[in-house]
Amino acid sequence: MSSKENFIWGVATAAHQVEGAWLEDGKGLNIWDAYSHTPGKITNEDTSAVACDHYHRYEEDVDLISDLGVGGYRFSISWARILPDGKGAVNQKGIDFYNRLIDGLLAKGVTPFVTLYHWDLPLALQMEDDGWLSYRTAEAFARYAEVCFEAFGDRVKHWMTFNENWCTAVLGNGTGLFAPGRVSDDEPYIVAHNLLLAHGLAVKAYRDGHYEGQIGIANNCDFREPLTDSDEDRAAAQESLEFFYGWLTDPVVFGEYPAIMRERLGDRLPEFTPEQKQLLKGSADFLGLNHYTTHYASRTDQVENAVSSEDGNGGISDDQQVVLSSDSDWPVTSMGWFVVPWGFRKMLNWIHERYNGLPIYVTENGTALANNDVETAIDDTERAEFIQSYTNAMKEAIEEDGVDVRGYFCWTLMDNFEWTRGYDMRFGLIFCDFETLERTPKASYYAYREIIQSS
Ligand code: GAL
Fold first, then answer.
1. Which residues pair with 113 in a beta bridge?
2. Average of pLDDT values for 378-392?
3. Taking Cα atoms as reference points, which of 40, 112, 23, 45 lies closest to residue 76?
4. Residue 226 β-bridge partners
5. Which of 20, 38, 124, 320 pairs as cysteine with 51 (C-beta 3.0–4.6 A)?
6. Which of 77, 96, 78 has its CA nearest to residue 23?
7. Which among 11, 414, 418, 426 is the best mutation to test ligand 1's pocket, defined by most ligand atoms within 8 Å of the CB?
8. The dihedral of CA 351, 353, 355, 359: what is its sign?
9. What are phi and psi of 222, to 5 degrees?
10. Alpha-helical runs (H) found in 247-401
């Protein structure tokens, strides 16, 4: 592994998945509060109202983070806890909560890595301004970001504007699987455009404020391996990666969308003005990567083990002209995601090459095991093996390929509200009993600690 000063081991969560306390201390409603209370949207009609009750139990959680031996904790701030209606008055009790959390982490020597937006848009902005379909939401985000920089920027030195804009755009406004649940072929491109501009405005505010620290973005990407060595399949894999990670990352590095997207989409893809290009270009000090799986990519649909476009490309497959498939030898997780550590190594290399060696943080990687029985769920050797094999692949990317990876954040600290899958899918290193809220570290918690200690 790269030298210890240069590399941080961490663990990640997101506000809406762990905090609960949905109606407390002045917090406003957000789109996932509304969505999770809409009949038929979430497995078992679970809601995120209580989740892990981290809002009240954060001290116990900080102890568990510290005992895990990680150097960093990635969490997100709930926008509606800070600005209940998204853009009006500041809720001091919300600021107080994150101050307690940040100070608690620092007291234990754990570095906070803060995401400003992990999908929980204040509901008022969705209702009044059409959410991310409107540039007004980008402006509101910039103000919210400034409030956070002012309140926490003296102690938080690592910021991410957004988590997985691909999901917000494609699942939120394409397939409608995620809040706000809209179905459209064109809206994902408009939503992504406003998210990118929001990123640019927030980074400008951060840099203009002369804070001492780094700011980046956490995008997700599954790897695409050409099914065969043909030129067509290699092009399919490359273009599919550009439509996935490149779409949301090229603009913040180069100030423009990938050329292949413009070619395929024409004026369905919004344009940046020259000023906006300037705003965006070079607006990430580092790139986050959330990575969970790999697929084969090809141009022909004569494939075995085809992966449905819903599962692979979230409905924008037609625009990409790519067919995805898998290998029958690949193990599959409870989410239906394939375990392919070498794909992770190749993914890291792809980012390193495309973005000229910009530092990378693996901001999420982990696996789900659906098992609600604490006695057997804590015996999660499969998760321990997953983490071992993926961190080995990362190690090869760093040591053998020279990729500049600065950190690895395991998803996730404890079982939590897994979006549309409710409490059914458990990704945690710690078992959370959603009746009693008791936390019990799993075997993978100790295995990950071991990996960290021996690195
Ligand atoms: C990511 C997301 C996390 C978590 C994880 C597992 O897409 O950022 O919030 O849910 O996937 O599905």
1. 74, 158
2. 98
3. 112
4. 297
5. 20
6. 78
7. 418
8. positive
9. -90, 150
10. 247-254, 259-265, 274-280, 309-312, 317-320, 341-354, 374-377, 381-399
Contact 111, 72 (CB under 8 A): yes
The tens digit of pLDDT for each residue in 270-284 reads 999 999 999 999 999
Q: How far is the CA of 318 from the centre of ligand 1 (A)?
A: 25
Query: At 193, is the secondary structure helix, strand, or coil?
Result: helix
Q: How confident is the model at residue 3 (pLDDT cuts 50, 70, 90)?
A: very low
- Catalytic residue, chosen from 19, 164, 187, 418, is 164
Q: Is 164 a catalytic residue?
A: yes
Give all strands (DSSP E) within 94-178, no chain letters: 111-117, 158-163
Report the separation in Å between the CA atom of 239 and the middle of ligand 1, taken as the mean of its atom positions: 24
Protein residue closest via CA to atom 4 of ligand 1:
418
Span between the terminal Cα atoms of the chain, in Å: 6
Burial class (CB in 10 A: 0-12, 13-18, 19+), 20: buried
Give 199's contacts (C-beta < 8 A, 6+ positions apart): 161, 162, 217, 252, 280, 283
Cα of 273 from ligand 1 centre, angstroms:
32
Please return the burial class of 268, using the count of CB atoms within 10 Å of its CB with bins 0-12, 13-18 and 19+. middle
Percent with pLDDT over 90 in the chain: 94
Tokens encoding 412: 């996730």
Tell the burial category of 424 from Cβ atoms under 10 Å away from its Cβ (0-12, 13-18, 19+). middle
Cis peptide before 47 (omega within 30 of 0): no
Global pTM reads 0.98
Tokens encoding 205: 């505010």
CB-ligand 1 contact for 411 (6 Å cutoff): yes
Q: Is 290 in the pocket of ligand 1 (CB under 6 A)?
A: yes
Collapsed DSSP state (helix, strand, coil) of residue 378: coil
> Within a 13 Å sphere around the CA of 195, how many CA atoms are in the beta-carbon half?
31
Q: Tell me the H-state helices in 37-134.
A: 54-68, 79-82, 92-107, 123-129
DSSP readout, 246-276? IHHHHHHHHSS--HHHHHHHGGGSPPPPHHH
Mean residue pLDDT across the chain: 96
User: Could you tell me which residues come within 8 angstroms of residue 92 by beta carbon, excluding any fewer than 6 positions away?
Assistant: none
